[in-house]
Amino acid sequence: MYMLVYVDDIILTGNNTDHINRFVQSFSQRFSLKDLGSLSYFLGIEATHTSTGLLLTQKRYIADLLHRNNMTNAKIVATPMCSTEQLTLKSGHPLDDPKQFRAVVGSLQYLSLTRPDISFAVNRMSQYMHQPTDEHWTAVKRILRYLSGTISQGVFFPRHNIPSLHAFTDADWAGNKDDYTSTGAYIVYYGRHPIAWSSKKQTGVARSSTEAEYRRLLQQQPRCVG
Predict the structure, then answer these.
(1) Euclidean distance between CA atoms 75 and 154, whole angstroms
(2) What is the pLDDT of residues 5-21, one digit of tens each?
(3) Closest by alpha carbon to 104, among 138, 81, 78, 79?
(4) Where in this chain does the record put each Reverse transcriptase Ty1/copia-type domain (predicted)?
(5) What is the pTM assigned to this prediction?
């Protein structure tokens, strides 16, 4: 049996239903609790059970985020970022009030728990939290427009999976035009579904593309062997 605890929200899972029921009964004798049954919603994440597996999405979370920022009916785009846009810390004019920018980027960071497809874009926008500009805000709104058209996407865990571990890494070289650092990313698959992913700016300047790639590989390795 496995138990996931976040403050007063708890998930129990295992392959022995009787064991789980006995634990809940014993737990309820010491603490006040409410059994909500099969997992359907947890901390903004929706769990949909199907005949082929489990789908984790954040449709309600995205819809609320779009509504709060008046983006519900915004024009949909096919990608979370424009591949040809070269943003820097000084691109555009500073926002008069950066609170909305910071709040949205913070929400997007949480959303990337089930959306690996926005991890790179969100990481890039997180680098502009100190003094965001109007161009940075336009880039954040593009992520929201992308989410509006992909609101039902998430992470799927198939019922019958292949017990194998695969990891992929990549990095650019001096892609950050402010300090010429590189950005690395990784994704780990268990069988056919992703279980861990990240996109992160590297510390220090890599002297070659090979060094940038090796740095990312070394940072990823503990995820697979630890």
Answers:
(1) 21
(2) 999 899 999 889 999 99
(3) 138
(4) 4-82
(5) 0.86
